[in-house]
Amino acid sequence: MLRNLLNRFKSVPSCGFHTSPCLNEVQLLTRLRVVDNSEIGKRAMAEGKPPKIICVYNKKRIGYIGDRVMVAIKGQKKKGILVGLKQTQNVKVPKFDSNNVVLIDDNGTPLGTRIHVPIPTILRTILKEKTHAKGADYTKLLSIATRFV
Amino acid sequence: MNQADITKLVSKLRIKVPPTHRRLRNPLGPEGRLNKLRKTVTGLIKYERIELNYNRADEARQYAERLISEAISHGDCHKPTMEIADFWLLEKELVHKLFKVLVPRFENSSSAFTKMYKAPKPAYARAIEKTILELKGNPYPSLTTRQPNNKLLLQNVLLDAAKYDYRQTKYAEIAEKMSTPEETKNPDS
Amino acid sequence: MSLVMRKSPIEYFNAAKWIIRRECRYLSNLPEVAENSEVVEDKPPKGRKPRFLNPTLQYRHVYPEFLPDPNPKFRNSLREKLERADMLKRRSQVDIPEFYVGTILAVTIADPHAQGKTNKFVGICIERKGCGLRAEFTLRNVIDHQGIEVRYELYDPTIQNIQVLRLEKRLDDKLFYLRDALPEYCTFPIDMDPEILPEGSPVPVNTVQVKLKPRPWLERWERQELKGVSNIEEHLKEKDRVRRELRKTPWEKFDLMKDYRKTIPIEDQTEIWGEVYNQLQQMRVSRKKMSKQRTFTAPKTQLG
């Protein structure tokens, strides 16, 4: 029976879908994992309704580490910062098993008081570069991190 | 950039290996390709000289060389080599030939085990390139003449004959010249 | 007339010679072959073994990145030679120990982003790839219930120290299935102590078989013939088993040229190892002496 199946399988021309591995990019409608202890984030994760991206604030519209995103979480719009990605990273930059986000408000102040997963050290430099004197101060996020890798 | 496979040790082939394999189109895909080549390799080991299309010959030649070099380096007590020989040689008596005839024949050779010649094509015809593939040290008469200046070549024979004729005529002329002055001198004197 | 007369004796002579040669060949060939076959049956254990006794070839397991890329597209003998010299120079500066896929390592790098300017990561090596100066390895660990992987270049000048915490091999060449395994199989404490093997003992193979989480998985592990996974069959449906059978390629292990194109042949390898063997051996010996000195000094401080 197997042989039969095999032959039938082989007579069919090769399948149309491509089999290259996915890129795991963070883009519009990607589901994220909230890793701080903000009330709204905790509830959303507990209910099994993780936030999804509705905007990535850069020109490519594909989120990389340290990018600011807008997420839809429990019917609200919140801003967040990507602090860990599944996608293949550069050398020495850690790659995480999930796409992690920390929620912030418009001034860059995190909504929670603690981040319970490790944060890549490269975020220090990236967030400092993104912070401008009169704009939002993202470096507050670093002070609530518990551990760096 | 890939790392080389370190689980296997192979000895270097003495033929030129192209960077990628030929696909040898087949409805069964890579399996069918190997089946085709198995037949050719079996034929080569069996008859020691075969004539076939260039693509298939070149591809089969690499596999035959690898098979013999594996047999030489591991011998017939090595189980994986035996399995490989069993796969590649469709007629099982050829496995004995491989280990008992070909291995001693090629054990100390420092060149490739096979030889490939281009076969003649019909002139003014669109024909696929044919080649002749043979194992070295086969019992057949060799395909190429050893000396390029063979006296028995037709051109050489004709040239020799022409030279001979030319020389003969020259000698005749000289002989005539030698004889005529005497004749001319005689009446003068 | 003269033509024919001149040609014929030579021709006859040649033809006769050819026939004689042929017959002689036939005659001589058959008994020769029979003799050889008898001799060979006794020979193999004596005659063929020495081919594989070249000890330098064993270095390919310890230093696989010294072998060039087998793809002829990327080969360049001069570049390879320069790279090997650079690798040896780097190795003389930093101790890059012997490790394999499955070994637990601690890597300290100089990190301009970190607070103390150094960054240490502990994890199990799940992959080694690349050759020459571009050789890479990947470490994986689970910290705070979050799986983390870091890729390092082996000859990166920012690497300050590579320490082997537990030297062992696993059953597979690549351990990507740890991403889908239960987290306890790749959780290692950050302050793990190095385990020292007794000198001269072979590298142990850890035969632990991990358990996978239920599907969805990142890859189709059932098709990869993994030895280090115990519970693949539990998660499969009938459909997956049928597909696995369909996708099997049993002929691939007989594809001699495919193997050949993936490897560096013995002759090339002996050349490469002959070039770097002495220096690598010297480095090993000097490192051993250093480590012995260290172990002697350590108890003194404890006593004092």
TrEMBL record, chain A:
It is found in: Mitochondrion. One of its GO terms (cellular component) is mitochondrial inner membrane. Belongs to the universal ribosomal protein uL14 family. CDD domains: Ribosomal_uL14. GO terms for biological process: translation. This is Large ribosomal subunit protein uL14m. Pfam families: Ribosomal_L14. Its main location: mitochondrion. It comes from Danaus chrysippus. The lineage of its organism: Eukaryota, Metazoa, Ecdysozoa, Arthropoda, Hexapoda. GO terms for molecular function: structural constituent of ribosome. Keywords: Mitochondrion, Ribonucleoprotein, Ribosomal protein, Transit peptide.
Automatic annotation (TrEMBL), chain B:
The keyword rRNA processing does not apply. One of its GO terms (biological process) is translation. One of its GO terms (molecular function) is structural constituent of ribosome. One of its GO terms (cellular component) is mitochondrial large ribosomal subunit. Keywords: Ribonucleoprotein, Ribosomal protein. SUPFAM superfamilies: Prokaryotic ribosomal protein L17 (SSF64263). It comes from the Eukaryota. It holds the Pfam family Ribosomal_L17. InterPro entries: Ribosomal_bL17, Ribosomal_bL17_sf. PANTHER family: LARGE RIBOSOMAL SUBUNIT PROTEIN BL17M, RIBOSOMAL PROTEIN L17. Belongs to the bacterial ribosomal protein bL17 family. This is Large ribosomal subunit protein bL17m. It comes from Danaus chrysippus. The lineage of its organism: Eukaryota, Metazoa, Ecdysozoa, Arthropoda, Hexapoda.
UniProtKB/TrEMBL annotation, chain C:
GO terms for biological process: translation. SUPFAM superfamilies: Translation proteins SH3-like domain. It holds the Pfam family Ribosomal_L19. It is found in: Mitochondrion. InterPro entries: Ribosomal_bL19, Ribosomal_bL19_sf, Translation_prot_SH3-like_sf. Keywords: Mitochondrion, Ribonucleoprotein, Ribosomal protein, Transit peptide. GO terms for cellular component: mitochondrial large ribosomal subunit. GO terms for molecular function: structural constituent of ribosome. The keyword Transit peptide applies. Belongs to the bacterial ribosomal protein bL19 family. PANTHER family: LARGE RIBOSOMAL SUBUNIT PROTEIN BL19M, RIBOSOMAL PROTEIN L19. This is Large ribosomal subunit protein bL19m. It comes from Danaus chrysippus. The lineage of its organism: Eukaryota, Metazoa, Ecdysozoa, Arthropoda, Hexapoda.
